[in-house]
Inverse folding.
């Protein structure tokens, strides 16, 4: 199982604060059946350039790998970023360097408001002209701002949607999460974990609820999306 959205990389953002915490988070992932984790620290264009961010990320990965290499029960980790949307992002140099490693996809955090035409056009331009397929992070946090039909329109344009595991485990929202997954308006689930306390890895519970409610087909579909993302290139 894949966890596509995590803040496990130490000392990069508001996620893990130490290698020890990162290791504890990875162990929890493993216990829940996650065998591949995408490390997606926040990227904010007003604070970092892609080059500076990648340098910081490289150092953090080296530090983490030093402590996990060769250990069993630790999932494979690959690098990515949670790129906060900024106007004109589809035109900037080096944006493709923030894609998930060995894939054409990039996790994008959209603004928490009703998206305007320029924002949607940026997503389309990324996909059509830059070879970067946006995966919209934690869709449940902004669907309520969008006109009906927005998610369908994005899906039809080949943009992928990620939802949080908690969208499926909360009694208030599970019905909507299940409905969206059933209609294939969610392509990936991620924990968006930040620590081991109030925002811990929680993929296991989400997947078992999905299996119970929607059956094996839904889990197979998520695995199929995982293979599509990786295209056989990573493992
Ligand atoms: Fe996140």
């Amino acid at each position: 199982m894949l966890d596509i959205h995590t803040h496990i990389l130490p000392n990069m953002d508001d996620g893990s604060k130490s290698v020890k915490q990162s290791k504890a988070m990875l162990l929890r992932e493993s216990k829940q059946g996650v065998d591949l984790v995408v490390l997606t620290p926040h990227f904010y264009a007003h604070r970092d350039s892609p080059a500076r961010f990648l340098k910081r990320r490289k150092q953090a990965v080296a530090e983490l790998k030093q402590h996990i290499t060769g250990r069993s029960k630790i999932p494979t980790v690959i690098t990515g970023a949670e790129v906060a949307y900024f106007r004109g992002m589809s035109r900037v140099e080096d944006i493709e360097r923030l894609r998930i490693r060995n894939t054409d996809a990039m996790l994008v955090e959209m603004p928490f408001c009703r998206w305007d035409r320029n924002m949607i056009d940026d997503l389309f331009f990324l996909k059509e002209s830059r070879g970067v397929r946006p995966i919209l992070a934690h869709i449940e946090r902004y669907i309520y701002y969008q006109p009906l039909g927005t998610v369908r329109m994005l899906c039809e344009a080949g943009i992928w949607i990620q939802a949080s595991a908690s969208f499926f485990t909360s009694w208030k929202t599970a019905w909507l999460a299940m409905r969206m997954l059933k209609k294939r308006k969610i392509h990936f689930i991620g924990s968006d974990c930040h620590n081991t306390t109030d925002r811990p890895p929680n993929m296991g519970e989400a997947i078992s609820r999905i299996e119970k409610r929607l059956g094996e087909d839904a889990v197979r579909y998520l695995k199929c999306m995982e293979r599509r993302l990786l295209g056989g290139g990573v493992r």
Notes: The first strand starts at residue 2 and ends at 6.
